[in-house]
């Protein structure tokens, strides 16, 4: 089914009876050429690009629950490409370019909204490091602008500029950054992959792998054994659990990250804004809710829920930046399980088992990475070698010491 204006008009006069399911509910086959485990953003995008760009056939996505209920539908929806290190910047800029054409390509309204991302700085030293990052972005073909405080005052007159502890000195702005409706990304990729013949199998949990003579030949699931020539794992926060089934110990820790949404308010925040003196980011949804977040919970957990301690911490940062939001009432909060790698950068690689591939370590930033990650993982799965943009995201960098330590904070996952 194609979504278009004529179809919309037709259905308006047809009691909306003619809409087909966004994706089918196919019968599980006993054998696939390529199996993707995890029906989140990364798994679904991988399946879509495998079929569309790399012309692969006989593909299935196995999702243990319903698609869209993992991190892909739980994040704070921010997309951007404002990284410092070349390995990351080139990759995330590729992703941003894919976001820009995504809705036309997958024929789905994902509400891609390039409303701009502004990172505030609060000291001279921080300004210098932001300028350096901005230059790195420009070199990699991204857009970046330095805003002085007077310019910011015209856009956000209500920020606490006179805060003696954290005076706002300016900001690094990326106009092409913004937000995307998170769950529509899962639905959109599922819709497009389904149209190309990918089987999306929900409520199918993978419990183990069958490995024969060093080759992965299939997976054990709650629906029985499924044979496959290649298996790609994209299960985000569950990565260490899944890969432990083949005795892999990964440089990944799982932590909960929470998101918060206020009651609906009149439009007040035009873009995404981040506080540079604490971990706090905020935007306003089209429905009017203030959508914000901060740090991950400090302890390891696989529970998809958070606690009140982090709420207090996030609200402290929010009020230091924007006292005006103190009167807004909180409507909803939820948590997602983050796959925090040791250097803050992802892993898209083969494993020591032939035919078994891994996509993980997305930390705070895996939503914006979805298109590029799907593309590069599909490249690896179909061709057997890495796409140039993801060849540095290898597993052995943690052994060799060639870390992609974007924040320069070393092997401390809770800081990434
Ligand atoms: C609160 C919050 C805010 C965030 N904000 C942002 C942001 O603003 N910008 C940004 O870029 N990123 C953000 N992120 C990060 C981003 O959401 C994640 O990095 C990204 O979504 C992870 O990839 P995914 O979509 O594939 O994960 P998921 O949607 O979690 O997909 C993994 C899937 O694997 C399935 N699965 C697990 N185990 C199995 C199994 N054994 N068998 C079958 N299926 C299995 C799960 O059910 C799940 O559906 C945020 C995350 C959270 C939680």
Task: Give a brief rundown of this model.
With 416 residues, the chain is an alpha/beta fold.
What layout of secondary structure does this protein have?
Elements lengths: L4 H8 L18 E7 L3 H12 L6 E4 L15 E2 L6 H21 L10 E5 L2 H16 L5 E4 H7 L14 E5 L3 E2 L2 H14 L3 E3 L4 E7 L2 E7 L2 E10 L5 H5 L8 E13 L7 E4 L4 E5 L4 E12 L7 H14 L8 E12 L5 E4 L5 E5 L9 H14 L13 H4 L16
Parallel strand pairs: 1-2, 1-11, 2-8, 4-13, 11-18
Antiparallel strand pairs: 3-7, 4-6, 5-6, 9-10, 10-11, 12-15, 12-16, 13-14, 14-15, 17-18
The structure holds flavin-adenine dinucleotide.
Structural features, described:
This protein has 416 residues and is an alpha/beta fold. The chain folds into two domains: 215 residues, FAD/NAD(P)-binding domain (3-Layer(bba) Sandwich); 172 residues, D-Amino Acid Oxidase, Chain A, domain 2 (2-Layer Sandwich). The chain is built from ten helices and 18 strands. Helix 2 packs across helix 9. The two termini are 41 Å apart. The structure holds flavin-adenine dinucleotide (FAD). Flavin-adenine dinucleotide binds next to helix 2, strand 12 and strand 16.
């Amino acid at each position: 089914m194609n979504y278009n204006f004529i179809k919309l008009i037709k259905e308006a006069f047809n009691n909306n009876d003619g809409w087909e399911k966004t994706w089918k509910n196919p019968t599980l086959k006993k054998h696939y050429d390529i199996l993707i485990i995890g029906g989140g953003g990364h798994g679904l995008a991988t399946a879509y690009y495998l079929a569309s760009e790399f012309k692969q056939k006989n593909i299935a996505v196995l999702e243990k629950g319903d698609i869209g209920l993992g991190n892909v539908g739980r994040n704070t929806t921010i997309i951007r490409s404002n990284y410092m290190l070349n390995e990351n910047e080139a990759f995330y800029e590729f992703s941003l370019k894919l976001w820009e054409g995504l809705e036309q390509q997958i024929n789905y309204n994902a509400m891609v909204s390039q409303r701009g991302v502004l990172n505030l700085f609060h000291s001279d030293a921080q300004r210098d490091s932001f300028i350096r990052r901005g230059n790195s972005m420009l070199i990699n073909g991204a857009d970046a602008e330095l805003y002085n405080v007077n310019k910011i005052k015209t856009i956000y007159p209500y920020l606490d500029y006179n805060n003696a502890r954290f005076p706002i000195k300016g900001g690094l702005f990326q106009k092409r950054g913004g937000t995307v409706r998170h769950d529509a990304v899962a639905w959109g990729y599922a819709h497009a992959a389904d149209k190309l013949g990918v089987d999306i199998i929900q409520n199918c949990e993978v419990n183990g792998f069958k490995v024969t003579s060093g080759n992965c030949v299939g997976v054990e699931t709650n629906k029985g054994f499924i044979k496959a020539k290649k298996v790609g794992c994209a299960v985000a926060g569950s990565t260490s659990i899944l890969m432990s089934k083949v005795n892999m110990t990964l440089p990944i820790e799982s932590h909960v990250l929470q998101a918060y949404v206020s009651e609906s308010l009149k439009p007040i925040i035009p873009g995404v804004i981040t506080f540079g003196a604490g971990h706090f980011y905020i935007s306003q949804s089209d429905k009017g809710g203030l959508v914000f977040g901060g740090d991950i919970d400090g302890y390891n957990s696989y529970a998809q829920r958070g606690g009140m301690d982090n709420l207090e911490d996030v609200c402290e940062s929010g009020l230091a930046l924007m006292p005006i939001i103190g009167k807004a009432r909180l409507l909803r909060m939820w948590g997602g399980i983050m796959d925090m790698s040791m250097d803050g950068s992802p892993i898209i690689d083969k494993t020591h088992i032939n035919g078994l591939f891994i996509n993980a370590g997305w930390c705070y930033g895996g939503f914006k990475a979805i298109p590029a990650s799907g593309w590069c993982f599909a490249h690896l799965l179909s061709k057997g070698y890495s796409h140039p943009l993801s060849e540095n995201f290898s597993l052995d960098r943690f052994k060799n010491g060639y870390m992609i330590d974007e924040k320069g904070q070393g092997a401390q996952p809770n800081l990434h």
